[in-house]
Amino acid sequence: MKRFTAVAGTVLSCLLILWSALPLPVPAQQETIKIGVIYGLGGAAAPYTKPAITGHEIAVDEINAKGGLLGRKLQLVIRDDQSKPDVGVREARELILKEKVDFLMGVIHSGVALGISEVAKEYKKIYLNTIAKTAALTEEKGHRYVFRSASNTVIEGRAAAILMANQPFKRYAVIGPDYEYGHRMVDDFISYLKMLKPGVQVVGEAWPKFGERDFTAHVNALLQAKPEMVYSSLWGGDAIAFVKQAKPYGFFTKTEYMNIAAADLDVVVPLGAETPEGIWGSSNYAFYYPDTPANREFVAKYKAKANDLPPAGAFFGYVGTYFLAEAIRKAKSADTEKVIDALEGLTIETPIGPLTMRAYDHQATKGQYWGRLKRVPEFPFPIMGDVQLIGGEKTLRPVDEIKALRGAK
Amino acid sequence: MPDLSALADPGFLAVQCLNGLTQAMFLFLIASGLSLIFGVLGVLNFAHGSLYMLGAYLSYTIASWFVGSPAAFWVALILGSIGVALVGGIIESVFLRPVYRREELDQLLVTYALVLIISDLVKLAWGAENRSGSRPALLAGSVVIAGRDFPTYNLFVLAVGPLVALGLWLLLRRTQFGRLVRAAANDREMVGVVGVNVTGLFTGVFMLGAWLGGLGGGLAAPIGAIFPGMDVEIIVESFIVVVVGGMGSLGGTLLGALIIGQLNAFGILFFPRFAIVFVYILMAVVLVIRPWGLLGRPVTRG
C-alpha cells in the first residue's frame, strides 16, 4: 500500500536534487533587456491575457526587427500568476532575483497587481501594469516604481457617469462581481454620477460571486426594485451569462441596461445574435473605432499573427510594451531610475491616438468607449453604434484629490 | 439595507421560488453523479467538474455542426452527454481501476491529476475564449407565471431534474443492475465472490455518473459562458450539496440541492453582499449535527 508513495517520494527527491544541482542561468551578462510579464493564464482571465501576450510579442518583434533598444534586444519572460496574489508575488520576486529581469509588466487581477506593486517598491524595479484596473494601485497606494498604461476604475466609472449625466434616468440598480474590481467600478460610477446629477437614487444592488453560473435570482430581485437603468460591472463570462439568463425574464424591455464590458469582443462574439439591441456597452478598445490608419494597421498586424480580430487585451499588451520601450529610448538607458524619469509625462503614439503617462500618479490618460449595441451586416456580432470616447484627461482624478487620498493613508 | 418588501409580493415570491428550484435541479443533476460514484466506487472524484465542463464543450461543438436546425440542441445534449459517459468509461478503466485498492489519498491524487489533464486538453482543443451555446427556438422564449415572465428553458430544466431523479431511482431500485450496484456499494468483495463482474459494474456506474455531469454541462451550455475554468466553481458547489445531503445518498443529494437552491434564491434579499454565507453556515451546522449528511448513513468504509 505504501510502496507507491515510497517510490513516488524517491523519484521526486531525486528530481529535486538533480534540479538544484543544475547550473543557474548565467546572470549579469546582460545581452538583452529582459521584461518579466506576469498574467493569470488560465480560467476567466485567459480570454484577455492570451491576446495580451500576443500584443507584447508583436511589439517586441517590431522593436527587435529594428535593432532593439540601445543596441540590445528585448526579451519577454512570461509567468502565470494563476490569478492568485501570493503566486503573483512569488513569481515577481523570482523574476527579479533569479531571472534578473529589468522590468515587470502585466497582470489582470487587481489583487495580484497590488501585491506585485509592493515587490517592485521593495526591489526598486519598475512595474508597469497593463490591464488590472483598481484605482488604488496608482492612487492611494501609488509610488515611484508603479505605472499603469491601462485605464482604471475611476476613469471607467467616471466615464460612465459623464455619459449618464445627460440621460433622464434617476432610479438606478447596480450589479457587479463581489470583489475589489466589481465594487470599485460601481462605487466610482455612482459617487460621481450623484455629484453630476443630484437626485439619482440607487434602488437595488446585487453582488453575485465572480464566476456565478446562475443569475436568475438576482435578475428577479433587480426587476423587483423597478429601476430605470441597471449599471453592471460584470465582465467576461459573467457578462455573457447575465444577459442570456435575464433576457427571457423580459429584463431588457423593463429596464435599460449598461455594462462596462458589453462591447468587449469576448462578450459580444459568444452572445452574437442573442445580444439585446440597444443596451449600452463599453469597451477598453475597439478594432473598428477610431477608424484611422494607425488602428487599421494594428488590426492587420494582430490578424497576421493571431488570425483573429484584436480584443482589448491585445491593445493593452502592445501599448504597455511601447510605453516602456519609448521611455528606455528617451532615457538612453535601461537604468530603472532614468527610465522612471523618462516615463513621467511621456506621450506616445498608439493605434488609438496619443496617450500620456501622467507624471504625478503614473497613470496613462486612457479613455473609455461607450455606445449602444447594434447589429451590423459586416459582423456576426453587434458593435457599438455612435461611439463616444470619454477621454482620460476628463476622468482622471485631479492631482490634489490623489494627494489628499495618499495623505489620508 | 436589505429591502424585504419584495417578500410580500406573491408574484415575486413565486418566480424567486422557481428560480431556486431551477438552480436546485442543476445542482442535483451534477452532484448526483458525484454522489453515485462516491457511494458505489468509494472514490471522491475531483474530476467531476471537468466532466461537467467537457459536457458543455462537447454539446456546444456538436450543436455548431447542426447550426440552424431545430434539432441541434437536442442532438447535442444527447450525444454530448453520451460522449462524456464514454470519456468516463475510459477514465475509470485506465486511471481509476489500478488505484481502487490504494489509499484514498492516492485516489484523490489521481482524480486531481485528471482535473489538470482535462483542463489542458480543453484549452488545446477549444482555446481560451469564452463561448456560449444557443437555446432551441422552442425553449428560447418565456411563459407568464403569476403575472411575470419566466423562461421556458427553466421550465424544461425543472422537468428534466425530476425525470432524471425518477429514472435513477427506478434504475437502482427496480433493475438487476441496480440491485448489484447497491450490493457492491455495501460489500464489493462479496459481490465479486458470488461471481458478479465487479469490474464491469464499476465502469458502468462511473459512466452513469459521468453522463449526469455531462448532461448538466450540456444543459448549462446555452444559458451561460463556456470557458476553461468553469470546472472549478461547480466542483466546490457539488461537494457542498453532497456533504449536506449525505455522501452516496441520492435522496440526500436531491434534498441538499433543493435547500441550497432556495437559500441562494432568498439569501440575496437579506444580505446582497454575503448571501453565500448561508450555504456555508448550513454546511457547518450539518457537519456538526449530522457529520454524515442529512440523509446519509454513518458508514465506516474499509
How would you summarize what this structure contains?
The complex is a heterodimer of chains A (409) and B (302). With 409 residues, chain A is α/β, with parallel strands linked by helices. Helix content of chain A is 44%, strand content 17%.
Describe the protein's topology.
The complex is a heterodimer of chains A (409) and B (302).
Chain A lengths: L2 H19 L11 E7 L6 H20 L8 E7 L4 H13 L5 E4 L3 H14 L2 E4 L16 E3 L4 H13 L5 E5 L4 H17 L4 E6 L9 H9 L4 E4 L4 H10 L4 H4 L1 E4 L5 H7 L8 E4 L9 H14 L5 H20 L4 H8 L3 E4 L2 E4 L11 E7 L8 E8 L1 H4 L3 H10 L1
Parallel strand pairs in A: 1-2, 1-3, 3-4, 4-5, 6-7, 6-8, 8-9, 9-10
Antiparallel strand pairs in A: 10-13, 11-12, 13-14
Helix pairs in contact in A: 2-11, 2-12, 3-4, 5-6, 8-10, 12-13
Chain B lengths: L9 H32 L6 H18 L6 H25 L7 H23 L15 E4 L2 E4 H23 L1 H11 L1 H6 L4 H23 L9 H16 L4 H21 L5 H14 L13
Antiparallel strand pairs in B: 1-2
Write up this protein:
The complex is a heterodimer of chains A (409) and B (302). With 409 residues, chain A is of the alpha/beta class. Helices cover 44% and strands 17% of the residues of chain A. In chain A, helix 2 packs across helix 11, helix 2 runs parallel beside helix 12 and helix 5 runs parallel beside helix 6. Helix content of chain B is 70%, strand content 3%. Chain B has a two-stranded antiparallel sheet. The model of chain B has no long low-confidence stretch (mean pLDDT 92). Chains A and B meet through helix 2, strand 7, helix 7, helix 8 and helix 10 of A and helix 1, helix 4, strand 2, helix 5 and helix 9 of B.
